[in-house]
Amino acid sequence: MTTTTQTRADLSLMPIAFATLAGLMLLFASGYAQASVLHGAAHDQRHAMAFPCH
To answer: Which residues contact 43 (CB under 8 A, 6 or more apart)?
Structure first.
């Protein structure tokens, strides 16, 4: 029976890799979204956090 082990370096890079991938996906998606959609999403988020914007 063969077992494999991961080093600490492999495990510590996983959150960094996930955050980078998530950031790139958000950047890619926002690049193709219409400006009105992005504005609406940001506006709704401000209201959800009870931050005045009007």
So the answer is: 53
pLDDT tens sequence across 1-48: 566 666 666 678 899 999 999 999 999 988 888 989 888 988 888 888
| Token couple for 29 | 């998606």
* Residue 2 DSSP label: -
- Reported pTM: 0.53
CA angle, 23 then 29 then 34, to 5°? 135
The count of residues in the chain is 54
The residue assigned the tokens 């495990």 is 11
Phi, psi (5° rounding) for residue 34? -75, 150
